[in-house]
Amino acid sequence: MNPKIKGKAFGVCANPQGKYAHLSVIASCSYEARAFGVKNGMPLFQALKLCPQLILVKSHSNFYEEVSRKMNNILSSYSDKIFQYGLDEWYMDFTDWREVFKAIFRQKNIEIFIAKRIKEQLAKEIHPDITCSIGIAPTKILAKVASNYKKPNVIFVINKKNFKKILHSLSLDDILGIGMRTVTHLARLNLLNLRDLEEAEEQILRQSFGIIGYNLKNIFQGKDSGFYNAFGCGKKSISRSKTLKRNIVKQDEILSCILWLLEDLCSELRLKNMVGNIVSLRLRYENFDTFCRQKKLHYYTADEYQIFGEVESLFKTVRLEMPVRLVGVVLAGLIKNCSLDLFKENIKN
Q: Which of these, 174, 169, 93, 113, lies nearest to 340 by C-alpha position?
């Protein structure tokens, strides 16, 4: 922790200085930086144009992993159904333990009470300057919306009474799994906002998006496509590749192509409620020689920017021998989760 940059515009990246600095992306940034338009996943050169005074901080992966493990231990003391979604994001199904903790602590609003305890433990056991936002809701998607709704450092509840009102106030891409490609496709169907999506016929959505259309409709029907079953799904990996119109040798062009592929890949992953923990990079030279680099992560994710950071580190181990003809990325070790009803009758929100 660095108190000198507290309250200032800063961004975290893998290589803030050195030969490959211009190829780095912003892994994370402060809210002061976001006020200038800086975003996670943004190329470093673009971030510096928006915020020339941006303070660059080198990432410390070992420290992040240690904090992540400690936070996972805290959450595991409240439920056996914990799902880690990247280094700094978790989903916890509290359903089976709700009545148990309610009896122990004799608290009426037990979810809010436990959320406050988690925040207190985070400050006491890890670091007082590390904060978190906690969303409480009947489904994964709504819990994500709740945690983002009034950031930073809040506890926010979405329930059966207010969830549609809140959804109607958001844009399409505020919803987990709806990326810009899906937004563009929805616009072709004249579905421009979440209210349009709610009123759309399920048959049209399924014809246009397949099972993803069913998942989109479920957002407003009190159902989730499932998240908490850490067992294998039928599909073991998902990939994207692109044969380039012209052979390229510039590293920034190759990295740009990788990020573009990952955005498409991860959009599908999120909508299908899949995550993976094995990333692979595939490159094919102009003479059709092909090679791969692979890395197993200690966490599961479907976040394109986290995966990009891992693929970027793999790419930097490669010494290009000739122009590249094809670029491909793979996420393997996929897991999918079973269905969970949004509003169980035995839970009073």
A: 93
Backbone phi, psi, residue 300, to 5°: -95, 145
Nearest to 294 by CA among 241, 251, 333, 336: 333
Of 65, 89, 202, 286, which residue is the catalytic one?
89
Helix, strand and coil content of the chain, in percent to the nearest 5, comes to 40, 20, 35
Residues 151, 159 contacting (CB under 8 angstroms): no
Residue of 149, 212, 147 whose CA lies nearest to 181: 212
Calpha distance 138→231 (Å, rounded): 22
User: 271 with 252: CB under 8 angstroms?
Assistant: no
pLDDT, mean of residues 248-259 = 88
Asked about 263 being catalytic, the answer comes back as no
- DSSP 8-state symbol, 25: B
> 259 in helix, strand or coil?
helix
How high is the pLDDT of residue 145?
92
pLDDT, residue 227, reads 38
Query: Which burial class, exposed, middle or buried, applies to 149 when counting CB atoms under 10 A from its CB (0-12, 13-18, 19+)?
Result: middle
Kindly tell me if the per-residue pLDDT of 339 is higher than 70.
Answer: no
Task: Say if residue 225's pLDDT is above 60.
Answer: no
Whether this prediction's pTM lies above 0.90 is answered by no
- Helix (H) or strand (E) segment spanning residue 148: helix 140-149
Residue 249 contacts residue 321 (beta carbons within 8 Å): no
Tokens of 203: 């048959």
Peptide bond between residue 3 and the one before it cis (omega within 30 degrees of 0): no
Query: How many CA atoms within 13 Å lie on the side-chain side of 62?
Result: 0
